Amino acid sequence: MTEMTISKTITLANGVEMPRIGYGVFRMKEHDVCVQGVTEALKAGYRAIDTAAIYQNEEAVGEAIKASGIARDELFITTKVWNADQGYDNTLKAFEQSLQKLGLDYVDLYLTHWPKPQLVDTYKAIERLYEEKLIRVPGVSNHHEHHLQQVFAEANVLPMVNQIECHPSLSQDALRAFCAEHNIAITAWAPLGTGIVFTHPVVKQLAEKYGKTVAQIVLRWHLEIGNIAIPKSVTPERIKENLDVFDFSLETDEVAAITALNTFHRTASDPDNFNF
Questions:
Q1: Three-point CA angle 154, 160, 163, nearest 5°
Q2: Which of 55, 110, 123, 130 is catalytic?
């Protein structure tokens, strides 16, 4: 695979284009820090911002978007319904609140955050938002194959994105293959993992070979295996670096060598076993 075959966007199941590298704002609760981070990201050329109701920073994201002066149709904004707000009616209410906080007329991608028992009703509400053109893309987050099957059984429109923890220590091969079969794009959260992989000789050697940082090598690996990635940083230099991964490509065997670093290590809860 070469850089010529990897576009900066991916075409989703309904034809909507989604940027392959987005800016994640998890744990940026401090208003000014989030505004500054999103502002830097937009200046650096990011056009996708990924937030969530539970991050408590949708207002800050909205503020930075408004101040940027970038046309709305050039941006791709993702947010998520929190677990306590799941269920049909609650999801519709939660979406309305998110929209107000973001100061937007619509959201590009709306996701269930984690698979709660009400996941089907929650997704039905997301379908309704899609039908009403309040969102451009319906999706889910942290869904294993069996959660997706539950949604498939009742859905009129299949989810088009599944946002999951994915990095070289948790390469998610089986789930990625299942999603690919059903034309569901994968967004990798925690795309750089816990940093364990950064010290691995394979990744360090590739960074040296290509004159890139280890983070850039890992992000390029995500692109090569078909993922969208949403790295987070508040450092302007790193924000820029994380987007600068389209000017080189990894060899097929190099991609395989990084994928082989998988140890099934999660940085957070398993979607089958969480209590929040």
A1: 105
A2: 55
Categorize the per-residue pLDDT at 49 as very low, low, confident or very high, splitting at 50, 70 and 90: very high
Strand partners, 139: 111, 161
Which of 110, 132, 136 is CA-nearest to residue 123? 110
Residue 46 falls in the annotated catalytic set: no
List the end-to-end C-alpha distance of the chain, in Å, as a whole number.
Answer: 40
What letter would DSSP give residue 14?
A: T
pTM: 0.96
Q: CB neighbours (10 Å) of residue 74?
A: 9
Backbone φ/ψ region at 15: left (φ over 0), alpha (ψ -120 to 50), beta: left
Identify how many contiguous H helices and E strands the chain contains and give both numbers. 10, 10
Q: How far apart are CA 122 and CA 113, in angstroms?
A: 10
Write down how long the chain is.
276
- Residue 36 in tokens: 């500054």
Give, as one character, the DSSP assignment of residue 2.
-
Cα–Cα distance between 150 and 148 in angstroms, integer? 5
Instruction: Compute the distance between CA of residue 224 and CA of residue 170 in angstroms, rounded to an integer.
Output: 16
Going along 192-241, which residue ranges are E strands?
228-229
Q: Tell me which H or E stretch contains 18.
A: strand 17-19
Per-residue pLDDT tens over the stretch 204-251: 999 999 999 999 999 999 999 999 999 999 999 999 999 999 999 999
pLDDT tens digits, one per residue of 120-144: 999 999 999 999 999 999 999 999 9
**Rounded alpha-carbon distances, angstroms, from residue 200 to 221, 229, 253:** 14, 21, 16
Burial of 267 (0-12, 13-18, 19+ CB in 10 A): middle
Contacts of 226 (CB under 8 A, 6+ apart): 176, 180, 185, 186
